[in-house]
């Protein structure tokens, strides 16, 4: 029997911005910079995979005194 893969969850720019507590403009900047992959659905709709959004933030190295 074939193995079933989970269906990816896609978010709108507004949903992604809300989830990350940033503005839609910031999400668009991340996409333009190549930091966050995005997918065009139809002519205008842009969607972001939830797993890509979760992988986007990077830990800031702590300053050592």
Automatic annotation (TrEMBL):
Give the matching InterPro entries.
DNA-bd_dom_put_sf, HTH_17, SinI_DNA-bd, WH-like_DNA-bd_sf
Q: Which Gene3D superfamilies match?
A: Winged helix-like DNA-binding domain superfamily/Winged helix DNA-binding domain (1.10.10.10)
Question: In what residue span(s) does the Helix-turn-helix domain sit?
Answer: 10-55
Q: Could you identify this protein by its name?
A: Helix-turn-helix domain-containing protein
Upper taxonomic lineage = Bacteria, Bacillati, Actinomycetota, Actinomycetes, Propionibacteriales
């Amino acid at each position: 029997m074939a193995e079933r893969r989970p269906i990816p969850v896609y978010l709108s720019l507004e949903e992604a911005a809300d989830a990350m507590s940033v503005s839609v403009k910031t999400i668009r900047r991340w996409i333009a910079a190549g930091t966050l992959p995005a997918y065009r659905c139809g002519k205008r709709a842009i969607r972001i995979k939830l797993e890509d959004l979760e992988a986007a933030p990077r830990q800031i190295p702590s300053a050592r005194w």
